[in-house]
Amino acid sequence: MQNIYDVTIIGGGPAGLYSAFYSGLRGLKTKLIESQQELGGKVLLYPEKLIWDVGGHPPVLGGQFVKQLIEQAKTFEPTILTNTKVDFIERHDDLFIIRTSKGEQHHSKTILLAIGGGIISPQKLTLEGAEKYEMTNLHYTVQSYQRFVDKEIIISGGGNAAIDWAVELSPIAKNVTVVYRSEQLSAHEATIEEAIKAGVQIECNTTITKLTANTEKTAIQFVTCENSQTQQSYTRQIDEVIVSHGYNRESSVEFDEAIALSKKDDYYFEGKATGETVHPGIFAAGDILTFEGKVNLLIGTFQDAANAVNSIKTYLEPSAYRYGMVSSHNDLFKEKNRSIIEKQLVKASK
Ligand SMILES: Cc1cc2nc3c(=O)[nH]c(=O)nc-3n(C[C@H](O)[C@H](O)[C@H](O)COP(=O)(O)OP(=O)(O)OC[C@H]3O[C@@H](n4cnc5c(N)ncnc54)[C@H](O)[C@@H]3O)c2cc1C
């Protein structure tokens, strides 16, 4: 019985991490399983981006936000496993058996799916030999701005991520050029305007057709680009190449046939704003869940998480309080509050 959890959260992105916190708040024995080495989900793709749209939170870098989410998730000491992909879920009476890629089995009374849109990986540049530059100057995410200071940068892609990076890098880079295969960028028009104002050079109908290495063959020194309208090509010396061509998705978890979940397409599960899915005992939160009025943003993941955990609580204990609880009403915080206040008093008296 010791190894049976009240809830097993699958996915350690914002929805899963906040669910782990909230589930501790509701007194549930909690396990979280994440397939990647690092917790943080999609926010790990934008560690240097300033996030402005989390209510009451000053603009915060993605990397810092992830650290805070992880710290909060650990408040009630849930069991957290990383580098462990959940492959298969089956049900035996009232118990779910969760099988992982490591051949382990985990047992849980309920499941909270927080798997985002599945396991995602960036779409790679399809030029021969491109992968060998991934260790040097070919990037699929911007992990640190420092690297791009005073550099000649070319960004391939026309979506929001590509243009956001162009806007953020242009004040520190020597030059930023965006090349995009279609006639018009697909990013939000306000961001495009910002990019133009920031001096980003934008070349539509243009693709990178060749990468030429430096003499040591360690990094890209020249890129050749071709314009599909004029059929003209040019070769330019660059320091860094950023590719933002979107993401591949892998539908990650399989279910026993007795567990029939309603899917919107290959990736998303239909459910309710309460986090319930059509299968009793399986709940969902964050980007994986769809319902009318869904908000596919960080703030949406938090509301989903609280709702799903409250639904889990009443599924396990039908007489439990159904709705959101304010933290001051929770006995579990009393001791933690006392210690925080004491520390603040000591600090103030110095
Ligand atoms: C480039 C970019 C910029 C963004 N900017 C903003 C912004 O400024 N503001 C904002 O509010 N939102 C932003 N978003 C959206 C926000 O990041 C997502 O809404 C949020 O990350 C969704 O969280 P999630 O936990 O539902 O899913 P995810 O973040 O996708 O996390 C899901 C986790 O589940 C894990 N997982 C999947 N399958 C399995 C499995 N089988 N076993 C174990 N683990 C598994 C994955 O590895 C992943 O860690 C942005 C998104 C992107 C891509």
UniProtKB/TrEMBL annotation:
InterPro entries: FAD/NAD-bd_sf, FAD/NAD-binding_dom, Fd--NADP_Rdtase_type_2, Ferredoxin-NADP_redctase_2. GO terms for molecular function: ferredoxin-NADP+ reductase activity; flavin adenine dinucleotide binding; NADP binding. Transmembrane segments: none annotated. It holds the Pfam family Pyr_redox_2. FAD binds at residues 34, 42, 46, 86, 120, 287, 328. It catalyses: 2 reduced [2Fe-2S]-[ferredoxin] + NADP(+) + H(+) = 2 oxidized [2Fe-2S]-[ferredoxin] + NADPH. Its cofactor is FAD. Signal peptide: none annotated. Its EC number is 1.18.1.2. Residues 5-308 form the FAD/NAD(P)-binding domain. Keywords: FAD, Flavoprotein, NADP, Oxidoreductase. It is an enzyme of class 1 (oxidoreductase). Homodimer. This is Ferredoxin--NADP reductase. It comes from Metasolibacillus meyeri.
